[in-house]
Design goal:
This protein is α/β, with parallel strands linked by helices and about 575 residues long. About 35% of the residues lie in helices and about 20% in strands.
């Protein structure tokens, strides 16, 4: 054990980086020499956490106080406090101040509320180095004086990222105070701002904060904060105050799942200017002019948009379809289009207008589209016409799109194959995902496998497509080999087949496969795919059963069986 002390510091640092917080505490309890090594390692105190759900269940201030003689405040860089009582925050801040933690760069606090005096005390010793700050206040009681976003920006001039969720005390009075000249002082470093004020109710004006942050690159706003701001004013506000903006996220809930590529702050080209990533998620219909704001922002930045991500709730029919309006504009740089639509969504009016709008948009407005993701789209459209414009399409994801039938999918893949025959370069479609798509049938899979697309696929996912059976997957894999290279292998193959109530032949036209068929499928998958997952889901009247397999467990089992045979 004593030899550990003689290892070079860089070697110890490399080893300790693999340890979780719990591992570090256990390591320090082995003996005095190990305790001394761990307690004096600078990485031990880079992150102080009151709650770490992955490694440490509870780490209170009292527990930290036992090690205050070892804590070197100069090493502390990140502090995360998840407390259920606001009374613990002053004790945490007093501990940090007592240890002279004046080089903190990242602070995250989740609490019912935080007194403004506690924030000022925190800013007093770490505002100079603080670059990332996250506040999440769960209490809906607005009588507590939480620090307002403009107060935070005023006292933390080195801040680069601010995430604020929760209420602001007396927001109507705060609106008036925010207009003062001192509050509107320009912030030089902030590039990432997320605001979701739970009690705004139209009293908050985004321009007050945006006027303070001229260098903002990523902006995330809760729709409740701008629900009384006219849609016609939003593009002008962004043009005036956010000239360096790259990503704009307008969402109804802070927990909305957003594609990571849509949140990038990096520009695709140095010479590019204007908004590149637009995310609009209004699942709960919190904004009154949803259809109009999507149209205005997309058209305003049509020359620079790279990614457009739209998720809508329920709205009554309007006079004109949003997709019909967008189809009249060319988006030369748009590469990613994600649409999560719903029944009677704002994105469509009558079926004929939705059919025409989406078809025209895909066929003419997005010549460089590489990623298409449609969810719950029920309006019909001509996919075959889109195939003539899908020269750069890389990824196709379709989920619960009842408006797309088997004939359209077959015609789409057939048209892509014809385009491929006319071009010298092969089709770039390498990733396809079908989820809950009843239109995916034997004909669709064979049209993919028998075309050049089959041999170009790198990733294929078929999840809960009720008309796809185990025999269909077998025929698909065999057809790829026959029509393409003999030793061709798909990089990733994810298959989840579903069978409903197969005790009744009338309700279940496809019987559940027996064990021999399943084993044959596993052998076929392992010979055709580098990485694969395979599962069978069986629904009964009142229960569900699932059987799962993957390439790692399957190959491990084969290896064990071969070793057992060799021993015999």
């Amino acid at each position: 054990m004593s030899r550990l002390v003689t290892l070079p510091p860089e070697v110890l640092d490399s080893i300790f980086r693999y340890f979780s917080v719990r591992d570090r505490w256990q390591f320090s309890a082995v003996c005095h020499s190990w305790r001394s090594v761990m307690m004096h390692w600078h990485g031990m105190w880079e992150q102080l956490l009151t709650s770490d759900y992955k490694s440490l269940a509870t780490m209170t201030v009292a527990a930290l106080s036992l090690y205050k003689d070892y804590v070197n405040g100069a090493f502390v860089k990140r502090v995360w406090a998840n407390v259920h009582s606001e009374y613990n925050l002053p004790a945490i801040i007093d501990f940090l101040k007592g240890q002279k933690c004046n080089t903190i760069v990242e602070v995250g606090i989740s609490a019912p509320y935080m007194a403004k005096s506690s924030f000022l005390q925190l800013a007093e010793f770490c505002a100079r180095t603080l670059t990332r700050l996250s506040f999440t206040f769960s209490s809906s009681d607005t009588n507590h004086y939480n620090p307002s976003p403009d107060d935070i920006l005023h006292h933390c001039q080195s801040l680069k990222s601010l995430y604020y969720t929760g209420p602001v005390h007396s927001i109507r009075q705060w609106k008036t105070l925010s207009s003062s000249s001192s509050a509107l002082k320009k912030h030089k470093h902030l590039v990432d701002l997320a605001l979701n004020l739970s009690n705004s109710d139209g009293s908050f004006e985004a321009r007050r904060i945006l006027a303070m942050t001229p260098h903002i690159q990523r902006l995330r706003l809760g729709l409740r904060n701008i629900k009384h701001t006219s849609a016609t004013l939003i593009p002008g506000i962004l043009r005036r105050h956010c000239r360096e903006l790259v990503t704009l996220v307008l969402h109804s809930h802070s927990n909305d799942t957003i594609d990571s590529a849509s949140l990038s702050m990096d520009r695709r080209t140095v010479a590019s200017s204007g908004l590149e990533n637009l995310v609009f998620h209004d699942s709960f219909d919190q904004y009154c002019d949803t259809r109009q704001v999507v149209q205005l922002l997309a058209i305003e930045y049509c020359q620079s948009l790279y990614s457009l991500d739209i998720k809508c709730g329920y709205r009554p029919y309007s006079k004109q379809s949003t997709m019909e309006r967008l189809s009249s504009v060319i988006f030369p740089c748009l590469c990613r289009f994600i649409l999560n639509d719903r029944v009677e969504s704002v994105l469509k009016t009558r079926p004929t207008e939705s059919h025409r709008g989406m078809s025209r948009f895909l066929a003419y407005s997005v010549p460089n589209l590489t990623h298409l993701d449609l969810t719950c789209f029920e309006g019909g459209m001509e996919l075959a016409s889109f195939a003539t414009n899908a020269k750069r399409l890389h990824t196709l994801n379709l989920s619960q799109c009842t408006g797309i039938d088997s004939q359209q999918l077959t015609a789409f893949f057939t048209a892509l194959s014809r385009q491929d025959d006319k071009r010298t370069r092969p089709t770039k479609l390498v990733s396809i995902k079908f989820c809950n798509m009843p239109s995916v049938s034997t004909e669709v899979l064979l049209s993919m496998a028998s075309s050049p697309l089959g041999c170009g696929l790198k990733e294929l996912t078929i999840d809960h497509c009720e008309n796809v059976t185990l025999d269909d997957i077998d025929r698909f894999l065999d057809t790829i080999v026959i029509s393409g290279r003999r030793h061709f292998m798909i990089h990733k193959l994810n298959i989840n087949l579903v069978y409903y109530n197969d005790d009744d032949p009338q309700e279940a036209p496809h019987p559940f496969p027996d064990r021999d068929k399943v084993n044959k499928m596993l052998r076929n998958l392992d010979s055709r795919a580098m990485e694969w997952t395979f599962s069978l889901t069986r629904y009964f009247e009142l229960s569900m059963g699932m059987e799962r397999h993957d390439h790692m467990l399957y190959r491990k089992r084969l290896l064990c069986d071969s070793q057992d045979l060799s021993l015999v």
